[in-house]
Design goal:
mainly alpha, two-stranded antiparallel ribbon, 24 helices, 2 strands, LMBR1-like_membr_prot, GPCR-associated_LMBR1, transmembrane, membrane, transmembrane helix
């Protein structure tokens, strides 16, 4: 089993990162380099989280071997004392041979740092550029990142000058490497505490509110009103951009040098607009004979960038609107079925996607009713209590992990108790649950935050390339300080525990932070305590209230604006529901017509063909019989059509149907 656990986790984490990227990205439409770079960034960060518990168990085993093979040192810790009833230093099932982990961590860490500080920022500018050639996009990316890279050099130069001026330090390569790592981890820890303070409160609260059906339905109505506004704004923006494209397309003819740029822009437009703005091949006048003002290549680059952004935003809002409608319809169905006496879940609309037959066999309407109406609310409440307990433990440990005598960090207490008995499975499970919960709190916040329309991770393949690359940058910057913070909480970091013990392979790659004592003894220890203030601010929704005061509508139960948006969203959902009901009724009526009258016409045609064959065989003996039969069949078909016209329902001219959608009434006229 030596190294088998490492190999299994490497494969598992790869498919996990691939699954998440497939959910948010679009493999068919987005550039392959964007997909590969984002997948690599996500994969490396998830890999660090999953492999670190194996590093901890292997380090504890190596410490045990050193304690047994060498003479017992002074009483530096309980790791030397072995229980007499236990075997001495048995090898864990997930043991990784010496020499593998340092190389593994070195490759993973420096690859992720290269991605987050050099490659991904460059690819962001490249993906967002509106250039028409690779050279033009690279030039734009280099210009945009000049200030970005210059800031890095300035910060690194400041640290370098500090070390050079200090007489206690000698400039060596290892120390320069440690300075760079400290600078990157300091920036990451600053952002990590902000995201962690939000996630520790919001994740348990969201699961607790998930048990409240009325709360979820009201919030869905609120989202519908906001999304409709964004959807209308995206449609209006797309119309304006397409109008500019139409004017440019009409001004630049087939033989203009910039015509290739126009063709590239037209390919990025939606299909219906491409059909309207066909290429002007009917005008063969030379472009230089007409005294018209033509746009420059720089203005076309800007227009190309606007087209890419507006089309992506329009498509995203359309998909999100359909998804939100399905959620609203489903929550309304749950509210109706809660009082059902038959205890069978009834859907207002059938799912448009084909469900698995195996899933349908077990997940029957009765099972669905018990799960949605009875079990699911209680499951969410229990899960919220468990997550809230974890959050309290994390906050307590973040405030007390620097105390070694006595040990106040609960995570350190759990690991030290398991270390005394060398229960490696318990050690790995405790480490994995701890770092997994910390990662969920941080990463989920990255998936939830939205910086206007520049950064937004939208599911169902609606995330643009810029947001995917930006998320990869954040993950690579947050994961190393997250792991160092976890090692500090468990006292596996010698900088925190103040013990002369063998460090983990991950800590050895980070180097000794004693080079910068004000960071090792000050910032890394006391800054995480701010998570208490951030948790209190998140609990009382101070950030939400501030955004609401600034004009950004947020969901707040005691706000008049929230109530107005809920009513507006409820009306929008009601209109869409009536529209879909009319569509389904029309489809059912057409289906019944085909089943009722289509079969009769088919049988009439078959009888007519059979009569013709019979007439050709027995034309001499029976001449008039086929004609009469043919006439009767035609008469029956004619009667069926008259009956169909009589069965047709009159048109409904109620006020609701007239006022639902004025655009439909105009198109009808």
């Amino acid at each position: 089993m030596s190294g088998a656990a490492l190999g299994l986790e490497i494969v598992f984490v790869f498919f996990l990162a691939l699954f998440l990227l497939h959910r948010y990205g679009d493999f068919k439409k987005q550039h392959r380099l964007v997909i590969i770079a984002t997948l690599l960034a996500w994969y490396l960060c998830f890999l660090i989280v999953f492999i670190l518990p194996l590093d901890v168990s292997t380090t504890i085993y190596n410490r045990c071997k050193l304690a047994v093979n060498s003479s017992p040192p002074e009483n530096n810790g309980s790791y030397v004392t072995l229980a007499p009833s236990k075997p001495k230093c048995f090898k864990p099932w997930s043991y990784i041979p010496n020499g593998i982990m340092p190389i593994f961590w070195r490759v993973v860490y420096w690859t992720s740092q290269f991605l987050t500080w050099i490659l991904l920022p460059f690819m962001q500018s490249y993906a967002r550029s509106g250039g028409f050639s690779i050279t033009g996009k690279i030039k734009t990316a280099l210009i945009e990142n000049a200030i970005y890279y210059g800031t890095y050099l300035l910060i690194f130069g400041a640290f370098l000058i500090y070390v050079a001026v200090n007489p206690n330090f000698n400039l060596q390569w290892n120390q320069l490497q440690t300075i760079g790592i400290a600078a990157a981890n300091t920036w990451g820890l600053f952002l990590l505490v902000l995201l962690l303070g939000y996630g520790l409160v919001e994740i348990p609260r969201s699961h607790w509110n998930g048990a409240k059906r009325g709360y979820l339905l009201m919030k869905t109505y609120f989202k519908a009103a906001k999304l409709m506004t964004e959807k209308a704004d995206a449609e209006e923006n797309l119309e304006d951009i397409m109008e500019e494209v139409r004017k440019v397309n009409e001004s630049i003819k087939y033989n203009h040098p910039l015509r290739k740029c126009i063709d590239t822009i037209l390919k990025k437009c939606p299909t219906e607009y491409q059909e309207r703005m066909g290429r002007n091949m009917d005008d063969y006048e030379d472009f230089d004979e007409r005294q018209n003002s033509y746009p420059s290549e720089k203005s076309l680059v800007k227009l190309h960038k606007q087209v890419i952004y507006s089309v992506q935003r329009h498509r995203r809002t359309q998909v999100q609107w359909q998804i939100l409608l399905e959620q609203a319809f489903y929550l309304e169905d749950v509210a109706k079925n809660e009082t059902s006496a038959s205890r069978q879940f009834v859907h207002t609309f059938q799912s448009q996607e084909s469900e698995n037959k195996f899933f349908q066999y077990f997940y029957t309407p009765t099972v669905e009713w018990y799960w949605e109406c009875l079990l699911r609310p209680w499951f969410y409440r229990v899960l919220a209590v468990v997550l809230a307990t974890f959050s309290v433990i994390v906050v307590w440990s973040e405030c007390t992990f620097f105390s070694t005598k006595p040990v106040l960090s609960l995570f350190a207490v759990f690991i030290q108790l398991a270390e005394r008995t060398y229960n490696y499975i318990y050690i790995e499970m405790a480490c994995f649950l701890t770092i997994f919960f910390l990662s969920i709190c941080v990463y989920s916040t990255v998936f939830r935050i939205r910086v206007f329309n520049y950064y937004y991770l939208a599911s169902h393949h609606q995330t643009d390339a810029y947001s995917l690359l930006f998320s990869g940058m954040l993950f690579c910057r947050l994961t190393p300080p997250l792991c160092l913070n976890f090692l500090g909480l468990t006292h596996m970091d010698a900088t925190i525990s103040h013990k002369n013990t063998q460090p983990t392979a991950y800590t050895s790659i980070m180097g000794s932070m004693r080079v910068l004592s004000f960071i090792a003894d000050g910032f890394y220890i006391y800054y995480p305590m701010l998570v208490v203030i951030l948790c209190i601010a998140t609990y009382f929704s101070l950030g939400t209230r501030c955004l609401n005061l600034l004009g950004f509508q947020q969901f707040m139960g005691d706000s008049e604006m929230t109530s107005d948006l809920i009513d507006e969203g409820k009306e929008l959902i009601r209109r869409e529901k009536r529209k879909r009901q009319r569509q389904e009724e029309g489809e059912n009526r057409r289906r019944e017509w085909k089943e009722r009258y289509g079969n009769r016409e088919d049988s009439t045609r078959s009888r007519a063909v059979h009569t013709d064959q019979k007439e050709s065989s027995f034309s001499e003996t029976n001449t008039n019989r086929p004609l009469s039969k043919y006439t009767r069949s035609n008469g029956r078909t004619e009667r069926d059509r008259i009956e169909l016209l009589q069965d047709a329902e009159p048109l409904d001219f109620n006020a609701d149907s007239v006022n639902d959608d004025p655009l439909e009434s105009e198109s009808g006229r």
